[in-house]
Amino acid sequence: MSEAIIDLAWIDTHCHLDAPEFAGMLPEIVLRAADEGVQSILLPTVQASDWDQARGLVKQYSEDIPGLVYTLGIHPLYIKQAQEVDLDILKAQIEQSLSDPRFVGIGEIGLDYFVEGLDPQRQEYFFHAQLDLAEQFQLPVILHVRRSQDAILKVLRKRKVPSGIAHAFNGSHQQAGQFIELGFKLGFGGAATYDRALQIRRLLKELPLDCIVTETDSPDIPPAWLKEEGGTFNEPALLPRIATQLAHIRGISDDIFSKAVWLNAMQALPRWSRLVTSNTNPQKAS
Prior knowledge:
single chain, alpha/beta, 12 helices, 8 strands
């Protein structure tokens, strides 16, 4: 990574640092990210058993990554093991976490109509219940929208969720516009680095710059070059290189892109903005 790139402030709005793939090597994962200039990372949780662990990891590594934050939620792929009582626990956890500046919202929540065998009604039940909490506490949400953009948009139009991010966005230009109108930013990452990702690249070129945020979805959605270079899984240290490719696709400088996606993430998650104002380099984050 060049010195010029490292001097920029990079932000990963979706990274599962608590994933099993990172077990036993998390200190190295975090340090590599910090060495590459990643100053902020959002850790979205996926099930009740993760919540305390995620909070602990964020506290443990906050000196290395000043803008390290977390959200609390139940992912649609984890509803089989979820219990209704988990929603009561989630509410209590949210209430307790409101005093924690590193807690920034609810997520990862949503609907998944790609994976077979998931009960759509059960997905909707947990999604609606978590949106109820987002409305009650006026917290932004991190959305899982795989093959479910229209269904999620239909729900959001009837809600008063303040803002959030549609993670790993791969919908149409029209769907993108509807999310933007509702106050959401759209997450882009390693998928756009593949030559065949024509739709995603069109979105990157044509959508307003102020709606785009960067993410890795580590350890998933590896960039195109990872296997060729001997990598085994995605990690936040790859975010700057991914982001520079996104900036190239967009046709703008790394500097302009870095500052724009940082600001966009802060607008989507205001609690994050308040944290990084006092914990990161304000000149880089401006």
